[in-house]
Structure formats: structure tokens, C-alpha cells
Amino acid sequence: MKQIISTAVTILFLQPSFLLANSGQMMGNWGDHSMGWFGGMGWISMLFFWGLVILLIIALIKWIMAPKTGTANSALEILKARYAKGEIDKQEFENKKQDLN
């Protein structure tokens, strides 16, 4: 997930600067807006840019809202480890195991 987010952020920052660097000849004539900054294909770059922004937001929301798994299992594993080390007896192990379930 982190790799997807970092790739999207990299593309978001590089894509507009790449298009601006390659369209310098069109930026000099501000009076003629028929071609725009990015030529006749400016709407494609706009869709691409906003598509990446939306995907980045969705990935971030999924990452934040992902359930934090492993808490109940880790508590049981800790309990088993404490019983195996002899820190608690069988009665206490069974009582705590019932509490976890």
C-alpha cells in the first residue's frame, strides 16, 4: 500500500512538470487559448492528474480504515507464552482464556 501511495505522489508531482517543460512554445502566446497550455490534449492530462488524486485519496482512506487485525490473537498468544514460561498456572490460564473469548 505504501508503494502505491508513493508511486502516485511521485507521478502527481512529475507529470505536470513534464508537460509544462515540453510545452514551452505554447505558453508564450497568452492571447491564443485555442490550444491551451498542454496543446489539444490538455483534457487528457487533466483527467490523468485528477484520476491519480482520487486514487490516492481512496488508497489513503482504505489504509486508515483498514481493521487492525491481530489484537485478539496476540493477546491469546501472549497468554499462552506466559503459561508456557510458568508465569501463570493452569487455573489462571483457563480463566483468562475464557475472558478473551
Can you tell me about this structure?
The protein is an all-alpha fold and 101 residues long. The chain has 2 domains: 2-65; 71-100. Helices cover 74% and strands 0% of the residues. It has 5 helices and no strands. The longest helix has 24 residues, at 42-65. It is rod-shaped and about 75 Å long. The model has no long low-confidence stretch (mean pLDDT 75).
Main sheet: strands, sense, barrel? none
- Distance from N terminus to C terminus (CA atoms, Å) equals 32 Å
**Helical content class:** over 70%
Topology order in helix (H) and strand (E) letters: HHHHH
**Mean pLDDT, all residues:** 75
Number of strands: 0
- Radius of gyration, in Å, reads 28 Å
Q: What is the 3D form? A: rod-shaped
Strand content: under 5%
Poorly predicted regions are none
Integer tally of domains: 2
Structure class: mainly alpha
DSSP summary: helix tally: 5
Question: What are its keywords?
Answer:
101 residues; mainly alpha; 2 domains; 5 helices; 74% helix; rod-shaped
Quick overview:
The protein is mainly α and 101 residues long.
